[in-house]
Write a structure and sequence with these properties.
A hairpin with a 3-residue loop joins strand 8 and strand 9. Strands 3-4-5-6-7 form a five-stranded antiparallel sheet. It has 167 residues and is α+β, with helices and mostly antiparallel strands. Helices cover 17% and strands 54% of the residues. It is globular. The relative contact order is 0.26.
C-alpha cells in the first residue's frame, strides 16, 4: 500500500471464538472447514474452573482425537509472528505480504519444552510504501485483514483464563 490501510474482517482466517461461563471456546471457522471440504476441524476449550485445555480434532470426516492438558503442565504461552512476501518491487522492495500470528502453549520444563499450537491467525498484511510507492504503481490503499487484532484479543483471553504468562 501506500498511504492508507483499510482493514476488513474477510481478509483474514481465524477461529470462531466465544466465552460460555468459565470456558473460552474456539473452533475452526466455517470458511476454514469449507476450504477443506469439511474433512478437518478443530475445537479448543479452555476451562478456567476445571483448569484444563481440551483440544479436539476431526480428520477425514470420521477420525477424532482429543488431548487434555492440565494448567499445571503449561509453562508459558508463546505468541509468534511471521510473514511471507507476496509482491515485490525492484525499486520499493516488498509491496504486499501475508501475516501469520501463532498462539501456542509451551509445556514441560524450561529445559525440555514442547510446543502445542492452538491457532494461527493469518491474512493479508499491510506494507506502507508511501508516496514513492504510489508513483511507482503501488495503490493508494492497501487492503488488509484483522488477524493481528484478533490474535492479540485471543492471546489476552488465553492469558486471563489460564493465568499463565506470555513470551
Amino acid at each position: 500500500m501506500s498511504f492508507y490501510a483499510l482493514t476488513f474482517d474477510f481478509f483474514s482466517f481465524k477461529p470462531k471464538t466465544w466465552i460460555e461461563g468459565n470456558q473460552l471456546i474456539s473452533r475452526t471457522s466455517f470458511l476454514g472447514q469449507l476450504f477443506r471440504l469439511f474433512s478437518y476441524s478443530k475445537r479448543i476449550v479452555i476451562d478456567k474452573r476445571q483448569k484444563i485445555v481440551s483440544l479436539q480434532k476431526r480428520f477425514f470426516w470420521i477420525f477424532n482425537t482429543e488431548r487434555i492438558i492440565s494448567f499445571n503442565e503449561i509453562n508459558r504461552i508463546d505468541y509468534s509472528y511471521s510473514e511471507t512476501i507476496t509482491n515485490w518491487s525492484f525499486f520499493l522492495g516488498p509491496t504486499d505480504q501475508l501475516e501469520f500470528f501463532t498462539v501456542s502453549l509451551m509445556l514441560g520444563s524450561l529445559i525440555e519444552e514442547k510446543k502445542v499450537k492452538l491457532w494461527t491467525f493469518w491474512g493479508e498484511g499491510t506494507v506502507m510504501t508511501g508516496f514513492t510507492g504510489v508513483l511507482a504503481g503501488d495503490g493508494l490503499f492497501d487492503l488488509s485483514g484483522n488477524q493481528e487484532r484478533r490474535s492479540r484479543d485471543y492471546v489476552s483471553l488465553v492469558k486471563e483464563f489460564t493465568g499463565k504468562s506470555l513470551t
